Amino acid sequence: MDVLFCGSGWLDVVPVLRARLDPADTLRVWDRARPLIDEVATVEVLLPSNGVITAEVIAAAPRLRLIQQPAAGYEGIDVAAARARGVPVCNAPGANPVAVAEAAVLLMLSLARRVPEARAAFDRATIGGPVGVQLAGRTLGIVGPGRTGTALAERAAALGMGVRTLGSRATPAERAAFWPACDVVSVHCPLTAATRGLIDAAVLAAMRPGALLLNVARGAILDRAAVEASLASGHLGGLGLDVYWQEPWDPADPLWRHPRVVTLPHVAGSTEEAFAGIVAIVVDNIDRLRRGATLQHQVS
Fold it and tell me: Which of 119, 130, 145, 170 is most buried (most C-beta within 10 Å)?
């Protein structure tokens, strides 16, 4: 199989994948100096990662037999174009919920203990400040109680937190009651037409003054202008991000240096254990394709 990894990030998964593939398979990494459309003429399996797979890319790949996303999210793939070509699209769900949940805990603790300000105090040799808050006894709200949300709920309970969840089937009354009940809100839902801009000015205004907001899902679920305004007013107590409105992001963006903002470089799902789980799914599906067996986790 001619396999092409199309992402600019998560390249550490490539050697793990290469070691697990059949020796007859060829795994290449997209040379980003060339247009992707020029790299796919012989490709049989595309691994998009954070690469965008357009209808034009699919049309330029006459030997393409599978688009296998080595992650759960697949919004960067033109699924309709793949379906029209008869090319199955699969993802790799369930491989990294623990990793993502632990990253959410890291963001939550960093905001609660005001780590950016603490780092600045350390550089000034200032002892005893800033003063943070304890998470025990506070309420965590999880938007999207799927695999990662459930894993986070377990860990939050171990910290002594109460947990509330908000799913896609919540009634308007349940939604209205959710936001003001939470000291911390963590976003875990997929990016869809219904969730794009879900965390807007109205939602932020309904949250408790000083509440913390985490996003380990997709950047566009948050309305950036509304989030920045809420931070500036002091209503939003802190923002923890592992995903962004544009990726790669601009490192010079002043938002990332706000004293109540904590950032990670989209690494919530990047652990050795998570990569091993993802590789197992990818390799299994490539082997199934080779044998003509039913593919796992097919989304289209």
Answer: 145
List, in sequence order, every residue forming a beta bridge with 211; answer none if it has no partner.
Answer: 236
Pick the catalytic residue: 247, 257, 272, 273? 247
Of the listed 65, 138, 147, 218, which one is catalytic? 218
- The active-site residue out of 147, 188, 208, 266 is 266
pLDDT tens-digit series, residues 128-186 = 999 999 999 999 999 999 999 999 999 999 999 999 999 999 999 999 999 999 999 99
Neighbours of 298 (CB within 10 A): 13
Rounded to whole angstroms, the Cα distance separating 179 from 211 reads 10
Are the CB atoms for 3 and 25 separated by under 8 Å?
Answer: yes
In the sheet that holds 162-166, the strands lie side by side as 162-166, 139-143, 184-187, 211-215, 236-241, 261-263
Say whether 247 is catalytic. yes
DSSP 75: T
The DSSP secondary-structure symbol of 294 reads: P
Nearest-5° Cα angle at 152, 149 to 153:
85
Domain architecture of the chain: domains with CATH: 2-95+271-291 (3.40.50.720), 97-263 (3.40.50.720)
The closest alpha carbon to 182, from 166, 159, 200, belongs to 166
- Please tell me the distance from the alpha carbon of residue 189 to that of residue 186, in angstroms, as a whole number: 9
138 alpha carbon, distance to own chain's centre: 25
